[in-house]
Amino acid sequence: MEELGMYGPNRVLELDQKPVSFGASEIITDAMAEDLVDAAVVVCEGAGTVIVTMSEVLQAIGAHMTGLYHTEPIGQIQRGLKERGSILLDRQCTIDQVKGYEVAVKAGFEKIVVTITGHRAFEARLLREMGKKCGVQPVILAVHNTGMSEEQAGILVEHCDIVWSCASKWARKMVGKRAKIQMGVSIPVFALTDMGKRLVLNRALHFEDGLVIHRAILPHLRTDRQPEPLM
User: In this structure, is residue 206 part of a structural domain?
Assistant: First the structure.
């Protein structure tokens, strides 16, 4: 709140820092730089569901956002986002990622990333169904998955491109086994599709520190560095 003005009228809305090695906003930001993505449906406090087209805006919104289920209108944030080319779902801060995807498609975007949470895993199925009907398949990223159920994890496995394990036991037990690639061993990020794999590897391409890549049976975990308790 002090550094970025989050949850207030002086919110920073452009940021070029990448504080998380393989965070969702970092992966999407690098994908935008390579034209793999032209719009991202994300959630911002004070605005609700937002369609973002500028990587700096996306990073400002998502770099330090750790989960948002409800928010109230902040006029300065909403105006600032619109001035930067973002599309608001409405002025009432509605959070509806499926509706946000619909708006993005109607606005003419064709390479759309949508972030959802494991507790609303049903949105992944709806997004896939809608993508087949309209011919614009979304790239679906599941974030903030701690505490999701076995059933919800099963939905993510079938419909998501990338899933963050967070402190979820079901992400590790179910999603990890189906992953094509894993980044990290403490809080693994699992890419489940070729597109998800491409986005993760694209982030690796832009990552400035050293990385180790080797074959493994997934999930590959460091048992001494897992969150406790897993939920």
Answer: yes
Nearest to 67 by CA among 13, 3, 120: 120
CA dihedral 171, 172, 176, 177 (to 10 degrees): -110
Q: What residue numbers bound the domain in which 134 lies?
A: 24-225
Q: Residue 222: its pLDDT value, please?
A: 86
Q: Do the domain assignments include residue 3?
A: no
Extract the tokens encoding 183. Answer: 């980044």
* Cα–Cα dist 120/152, whole Å: 8
Whether residue 19 lies inside any domain: the answer is no
Q: What is the pLDDT of residues 75-127, one digit of tens each?
A: 999 999 999 999 999 999 999 999 999 999 999 999 999 999 999 999 999 99
64, 6 Cβ separation under 8 angstroms: yes
Contact 11, 80 (CB under 8 A): yes
Query: Which tokens sit at 211?
Result: 């990385």
Is residue 115 within 8 A of residue 164, CB to CB? The reply is no
- Considering the domain boundaries, does residue 123 fall inside one? yes
CB 47, CB 80: distance < 8 Å = no
- pTM for this structure? 0.95
Q: Is the dihedral of CA 11, 14, 16, 22 positive or negative?
A: positive
Three-state SS string across 107-140, please?
A: CCCCCEEEEEEHHHCHHHHHHHHHHHHHCCCCEE
The torsion region of residue 67 among left (phi > 0), alpha (psi -120 to 50) and beta comes to: left
Question: Six-digit token pair at 1?
Answer: 């709140």
Domain count, the chain: 1
